[in-house]
Design a protein that fits this description.
Layout lengths: L1 H13 L15 H14 L3 H21 L18 E4 L8 H11 L4 E6 L7 H9 L2 E4 L3 H17 L3 E4 L18 H9 L3 E3 L3
Parallel strand pairs: 1-4, 1-5, 2-3, 2-4
Helix pairs in contact: 3-4, 3-5
Length: 203
Amino acid sequence: RPAVIENIKSAAEKGDFYKKVELNDPVITEETAKAITDKYLSSLKSFGFKLKSSLARGIANVGTYLVNKNTEIVGEIDKEVIKNGVIITSNHFSPLENTVIRHFIRKMGFCRLNIVSQVENFAMGGVIGFLMNYADTIPLSTDKRYLARDFVDLLKGLIDKKEAVLIYPEQEMWFNYRKPRPLKRGAYHFAAKLNCPVISCFV
């Protein structure tokens, strides 16, 4: 962690608020990224994928309950404005802060929180890798064909099913960084394209 915090300090001083600061994140090639998104798309409707997703969702829900026993939600959303699904935005400083958003949307009546995550995260191993691949996550790739067609179709399907989708407009996780960072426009672009509201959160 000290080395990561030094990376954050250096990037913040330079105004590079989207810089990757973690030391051991997977580094993958374009071919590997395409293989990950292709496998994800082809597996979505399979029984094995749904079974693993159910298990991963259960683990995430238990973790959400344990982490958020004393979490306070400040502010209310008029549910009348949400006709279909919704895109949620939030700051990104911990692997666990999305449990706060999961806690929040469950209070709003949504059953699932779908999380957009960079495709490199799908190459992780162990328990974290399992959750990254199956806990209602959606890979985000820089491949233009995937981004313009498949990714938009995935988001549209979830919004049409009245589900919630979390997109981190700060892009990279900065461990324990407590200030808001400048936001990239992607989440708002997709919300406008899909004609759905954005709920902006800060943890």
